């Protein structure tokens, strides 16, 4: 939880892959409050309360089609709950 009382959501993914780097760039662009932290071998992306991952934004950076199920293959762990998941968007938030 941050000082304002909003619990953070986010995920960790392996560092070093161009695909993961572009994924993080897209998420950062769509979620201005997101913070990216590099750790040895991992990147942590977190935001207060809610994070949206848009297929279109990821595809623009990758330069190829991207299916939202590829997100599962990229992440090591996540915190928060998957509030929505369809072909165009993933939303991580808290239900409580």
UniProtKB/TrEMBL annotation:
Top-rank taxon: Bacteria
Listed Pfam families: MmoB_DmpM
Family under the similarity heading: Belongs to the TmoD/XamoD family.
Protein name: Phenol hydroxylase P2 protein
Lineage, top ranks: Bacteria, Bacillati, Actinomycetota, Actinomycetes, Micrococcales
Organism: Flexivirga oryzae
GO molecular function: monooxygenase activity
């Amino acid at each position: 939880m941050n000082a304002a009382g909003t619990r953070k959501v986010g995920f960790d993914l392996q560092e070093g892959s161009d695909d993961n780097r572009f994924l993080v760039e897209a998420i950062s662009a769509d979620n201005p409050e997101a913070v990216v932290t590099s750790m040895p071998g991992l990147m942590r992306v977190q935001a207060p309360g809610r994070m949206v991952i848009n297929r279109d934004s990821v595809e623009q950076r990758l330069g190829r089609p991207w299916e939202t199920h590829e997100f599962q293959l990229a992440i090591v762990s996540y915190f928060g709950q998957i509030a929505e998941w369809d072909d165009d968007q993933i939303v991580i938030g808290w239900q409580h």
